[in-house]
Amino acid sequence: MGRRLRRRHVRPGKKRGDRVGLTKRGKGTKIMVLTDAQGLPLATEVEAANVAEVNLIEPLLDEAVTSHVPSRLVYDKAADCDALRDRLAERGVDLICPHRKNRVRKKKQDGRKLRRYRRRWTVERSIAWLHAFKRLVVRNEFYAHLYHGFIKLACMIVCFRRL
Question: pTM value?
Answer without folding.
Answer: 0.79
